[in-house]
Amino acid sequence: MLYARASLNAQGGVRFGFRHIRKVDHRQTVQPFKDYTLREDEINEKYPQERQRKIPKRLRGMAVGLVQKLQIQHQRCAYKKLLEYYCPSLDPTRFGATLFSVGDLYTRLKAFQTKISNSSKPLYFVKVDVKAAFDTIPQASVIELMSSLSSKPAYRISKHVEIKPGENYREDLPGKRKAKPMRKWAALARGAKDPMTFEDTLKNNLAVGKKNTIFVDNIINQYRSADDLLDLLSEHVTRNMVKIGKKFYRQKEGIPQGSVLSSLLCNYFYADLEAQHLGFLNENDSLLLRLIDDFLLITTSHTQARLFLQKMHDGVPAYGVQVNPAKTLVNFEATVNNQKVARLVGTRAFPYCGAFIDTKSLDISRDRERRKDIGMLMSLVLLRGLGELVANCYSGRGFFDD
């Protein structure tokens, strides 16, 4: 489901941009949004200032100042960086079983494998998927949870740029065209009165494991109060709009899908669910993983595996969680609510988020069948810079030396 990012008919100032939605599935979208309906000409008549100042050029043909665009970017950046960097550093457990990428699988599985290396018990796998996760998260609950994360009255958001050598960069080719350096703008968040300098951050965290990189501080910092950031989040969640044809609908359930904050909000929210409702899982013999809304439990306890399976299939109404039974998969015989659960048979390769996990050794491999359709795309990416590579090879030696 696609969403716009701001409320056009809000009386207060809107601090997020608006994105025009052209194609929306009416069957999935029209019913949930019944808060109000206004036609485009009615919005022009009732809220002329909002139309003149806030609506982008691609929607109404009016220019939007560069300053306003930059302000919108800063508004998005402030709370995102607070959730992404500062809060996890204070309490890493707030993210629970979150995987930020499939690449995190290796680290988590390796640590769990070391923990149970002396056990001869079989491993039980349970994979469940939350149905329409972003559309079912209660708005009031997620805002209440986010308000508990702010431990400081104000925060400081700083930006810096990281500069690295470009791809195919070689110093041993004098006179040859060198690739342009790669620049990446990043931001950090910390308490407004935190005495840590940018140099301290580099030594302790930012520069660790990064080679051939230049860090340049932007010097100018942005200061925001906790109340202002919470108001910004509330606006983002509760005043989200979608346009269907010439009508506008407010999203009353769920959080905006595809926004810069959606994944972070989902991770925090489901981490709280884990703490409140999945506390029966023993960390000594169980590993819970979650990539956004895809849960995977690996445990040596058959009892815990069945409890987790039953708990998730029963649903957690307070968190809007309802499992999609068609996507549930286990590697043992199981029945939930008089329905047999799909079981992995004839193989030890358990699929999870584009990877296979061996149900005995916990080895990881790629799901190549799933990725074969993008083989040509990957080939084109690898061919990037081929002309320069061939020229370099030809200048040094022939392809077929005797």
Automatic annotation (TrEMBL):
Coiled coil: none annotated. Pfam families: RVT_1. One of its GO terms (biological process) is telomere maintenance via telomerase. Residues 1-357 form the Reverse transcriptase domain. GO terms for molecular function: metal ion binding; telomerase activity; telomerase RNA binding; telomeric DNA binding. Telomerase is a ribonucleoprotein enzyme essential for the replication of chromosome termini in most eukaryotes. It elongates telomeres. It is a reverse transcriptase that adds simple sequence repeats to chromosome ends by copying a template sequence within the RNA component of the enzyme. Belongs to the reverse transcriptase family. Telomerase subfamily. This is Telomerase reverse transcriptase. It comes from Glarea lozoyensis (strain ATCC 74030 / MF5533).
